[in-house]
Amino acid sequence: MMTRRPRLVDRKHADGFPTYTWKTAPDGLSTKDQLKSRGLRPGGPIVAQIKWRSKKRHGNYRHAWLYETDLALPKQPMTPAKWEAVGKALRARRICPECGVEKHYTISTKYKACNECMPPEYAAAA
Q1: What is the pTM of this model?
Q2: Cα separations (Å) of 106 from 73, 94, 103, 112?
Q3: What mean pLDDT is reported for the chain?
């Protein structure tokens, strides 16, 4: 991947981390998403950040933390126990707290009831 020349925005910003603009971080630094795409996870502390202006958020700045790629560790695999825990958590989200029946969809956290138990004033809004 071709990157632009590293451009340090300011030396001390947001807790003293070096801050770079979009696509200008030096080689050897990666975001969590970049590490994840390679099957890795951060193996050391945050060393810098990328900061950019968000078009979706009306000009507000967004940032991403950067980690040293050399210190990255392999992702931990999902064990059968982890898969079971995820399954239980997802099942719990399908059980209506009002009637206690398991539905084929996730119960709304906003209305806290299944479609059948939802009060009429909420049913129109949902």
Answers
A1: 0.62
A2: 34, 5, 7, 10
A3: 84
